[in-house]
């Protein structure tokens, strides 16, 4: 058998020299950065690891892949699979296919650490003797929302604690692994312990055994809302950039409504799973307020976030599949919120009718919007372009990756003064500012800020920007004609068009624009 070669996330098929080669893909490649062309047969221009994840040969945890060189072909199709969108290519000189490398090859290549080459099962790889660190492949901050209502009763409550304990142990809790806490839902929610209280499975297990049964109605909605809003604060131990997860255990059905709690959880960037046990039988359905309660609360109704167990008895076989779900961080769609997953470009009118002091008010407005978002290299990004007849990119999306630097760059923008060619400026921004990030994971927004009539056509360039996937908000001041503003704005035009007579009126619009961006973001994710 062949020994395997370790490669990077970006190694392409054409970088390999042999007809058949076994390679080892690293873990945690950024899915959105993969270039993959085709489906099953991939153009050799494609990333090998990207193709392997696309094909389902490995997950984002990496692993061993056998690459087979194939002749070139025409018309490589675009297919979305396993979180990767492959692209069309009309023809290429050579291709490759990917299949799982045989077990013994993987062993030979990575010796002791073979357990990390396969998708993480939540069990600790043998090589991490460092027990304190825990399972580093499982990135999650988890709240177990357990059922403490009269529905479940004392006997099954103890079985529930048993099950949660087994899940906690298999997750591989540790300083660098998953952290967990527990909230009990009954009449009123009670946070039993926080993420930061324990970093060892033994301690967590002990804390779970000590939990007392509270009883009362199963006000799961109330508990879910409370947990989404209060549990994941930094002072309670939530970690930046780690997916937030609530696993709701529900015996039977809730006494209250889950819809509002589900909305709040999604807005707070929390991934909600529902483990429903002993779901309502036909004769009980008359007592259930809302039969579709699971779909109201889960992060997505794609089946991934709901989990069913027939009873609390004999649940051991249900532990591992649940742990695998909780450790699949690339599936945690709800971690992305409007605050941490968008690109906003500001197109700022620098024409001579604005004047220096009003220009400063425009910059304050830009800062106040930018301030609301979580700007970082893995989060939201901001860019700014100033225009007259000419355009000047003040800074692009990748120039500054912290909020402080972005705000200071906005303060330092110098007023140009000149004419007004808004249409040209929109085309310039679409091409030069959004062009480089068009295949990235973030949703794109453009805020056009102008005080007057444009000398050129704005309708065509704005339509082209929208066609390129950019949502446009138009903000007009003073002499900006309403027709122009409406022509630039995205559909529905009303909520994307803003106007004020005075520059001092810009400040009042800030909350509405932020709300509008978040609404568009959520609508695009449904």
From TrEMBL:
Protein's UniProt name: Cochlin
Chain segments carrying region Disordered: 112-132
Domain VWFA span(s) in chain numbering: 141-326, 343-513
Keywords: Disulfide bond, Glycoprotein, Repeat, Secreted, Signal
Coiled-coil spans in chain: none
Protein's cellular compartments: Secreted
Gene3D superfamilies, per database record: LCCL-like domain, von Willebrand factor, type A domain
GO cellular component, one term: extracellular region
Biological-process GO terms, alphabetical: sensory perception of sound
Described purpose of this protein according to its UniProt entry: Plays a role in the control of cell shape and motility in the trabecular meshwork.
Organism, scientific name: Grallaria varia (variegated antpitta)
Residues annotated as domain LCCL: 3-96
